[in-house]
Amino acid sequence: MPITAIPFDNTYARDLAGFYEPCQPATVREPTLLFFNRGLAEELRLGLADHDATALAAMFSGNALPAGAQPIAQAYAGHQFGHFNPQLGDGRALLIGEVVDRDGRRRDIALKGSGRTPFSRRGDGKAAVGPMLREVLVGEAMHALGIPTTRALAVVSTGEPVYRERTLPGAILTRIAASHLRVGTFQFFAEHTTPQQVRQLADYAIARHFPELAGTEDRYLGFLRAVAERQAALIAQWLHVGFIHGVMNTDNMGIPGETIDYGPCAFMEAYDPHAVFSSIDERGRYAYQAQPSIARWNLARLAETLLPLIAENDGQAIELATEVLDAFPARHRHYWLAGLRAKLGLLGEVASGDSVDTALGESWLDLLHAQQVDFTLAWRRLADAAEGNEAPLRALFAAQPGLDRWLQRWRERCAAEAAGPASISGQGAAAARAGRMRRANPWLIPRNHRVEEALAAASDTGDLAPFKQLLNALRRPYDEDPANARYAEPAPGGFMASFQTFCGT
Ligand code: AMP
Ligand code: MG
After folding, report:
1. Using CA positions, which residue lies closest to atom 6 of ligand 1?
2. Which of 23, 79, 88 to mutate to test the pocket of ligand 1 (most atoms within 8 A of CB)?
3. Are 455 and 391 in a shared domain?
4. Is the CB of 263 within 6 Å of ligand 1?
5. Which of 293, 325, 415, 500 fits a 20 to 30 Å CA distance from 275?
6. Are residues 293 and 200 in the same domain?
7. Ligand 1 pocket member 252 (CB < 6 A)
């Protein structure tokens, strides 16, 4: 039964003529459904429960788009590794339409790898099975970790080869996003059109993502502040799970504040603030620790596009925008500290001062760095220590004295809280703290060696079992289930030292 009716309501195509190129997906030879996110389909109210894999593959390959789909390639520009490229755009993606989900949120449905578009430049418009399944694994893991992200609805293999360094099986990903508006979208229209068109885009973004600002007097400054606020929070969340995006170009920074564009991203194992895995990031521009300042840099590029809307007087517009940008590090710090306290098991209700807790967190991270301790396991084992079980934590550290000193400080800080007005004391308090910590510190992250293992099986031999098992495990990252123990272990010695991710996915 072919899929005929999806309740599309395509505001971007309708309201923003001139901001995109209509474009049809390429027909593919032999579409086969590799992955379908049933839960997400239900959330989107797509009404696909009765359709079989053949019908789903026909739709999600782009071979048989349902009525109401209106495929378009969106225009955008972007700073790539600091260099401005005025003309990027969807070179291998198509927005096929928007739906309103069961919570009333508007979501984009887009195909990635669906063939050439007017923005393809020299690219083939295609994608390969491995990188698209990688986007599923990492995106679903991020979602399960509670981090805003675009999500994968489906992956279809095309039955056609894709030519990279070697020949790979082709695939198309269906990506769901709050929208695909990027900093680079604003840059494109600021570069090529008039302030009126930038205003039209900003009004669209405000109506869609920040409706509370619509009609307010200083809404464009408010818009900049709101986008910055979401990034400040998002990047704090990244840091707290050891996530490195890898290619934070302005075209890969989303206006809605979702993690978008899973290219050369990776999670670190041993804590290292300078960690970078992307093969093309030779100078560490997008290293773990650089991410907050890069976000601010990207927001400055967004601010530049909004200046004519912020105030008529250029000097005044710059002054107002600069205030927002200058506030960004403190806003990020605010979210980071809140996340840190949760990870440390602190309620944050005791007047211990931000600087005391920041110093406590930073000295913990210094300790992990100095002893090259696995970031995820260290936090998780600290929860055990909160309940008096220190051995698993101690086993992660080669040298104990530094850890002893730090644990002493941490216990004093916890005790100060336990002595506070609304405290429960003793065993109950310890168990409650450990429980809170286990909800703030995941046991599972998508470890790179496990991801690579699953993708190699899928891509090289068509065996999807390791991918499915890993995906199932990653959907419950906070549950310490012995059946998933192999996914919690760090990579064997040497793997991470030579691990690199690649952009040309
Ligand atoms: P990305 O590095 O994935 O964020 O992509 C940067 C730009 O290159 C975007 O404009 C993409 O649409 C474009 N691009 C990436 N891969 C391809 C491809 N295989 N064919 C055409 N365009 C591509
Ligand atoms: Mg991109």
Report:
1. 88
2. 88
3. no
4. yes
5. 325
6. yes
7. yes
Query: Residue 172's pLDDT is what?
Result: 98
Q: Where are the alpha helices (DSSP H) in 34-84?
A: 38-43, 53-60
Task: From 20, 21, 74, 92, give the residue whose CB has the most ligand 1 atoms within 8 Å, as the site to mutate.
Answer: 92
- CB under 8 Å to 286, separation ≥6 — which residues? 244, 245, 246, 247, 248, 276, 278, 294
Catalytic residue among 90, 251, 281, 357: 251
Domain that includes residue 463, residue range: 448-498
- Ligand 1 atom nearest residue 505's Cα: 16
Give the domain-ending residue among 440, 462, 478: 440
Same domain, 175 and 26: yes
d(CA 299, CA 223): 11
53-93 pLDDT, tens digit per residue, is 999 999 999 999 999 999 999 999 999 999 999 999 999 99
- The CB density around residue 158, as the number of other CB atoms within 10 Å, is 28
Q: What is the pLDDT of residues 211-222, one digit of tens each?
A: 999 999 999 999
For residues 466 and 469, what is the distance between their CA atoms, to the nearest angstrom? 5
Residue 21 and residue 170 in one domain: yes
Identify whether 124 is a catalytic site residue: no
User: 């990903």: which residue's tokens?
Assistant: 173
pLDDT band of 1, cuts 50, 70, 90: confident
User: Could you tell me the pLDDT band of residue 353, with boundaries at 50, 70 and 90?
Assistant: confident
How many Å lie between the centroid of ligand 2 and the Cα of residue 461? 28
Domains: count for the chain: 4
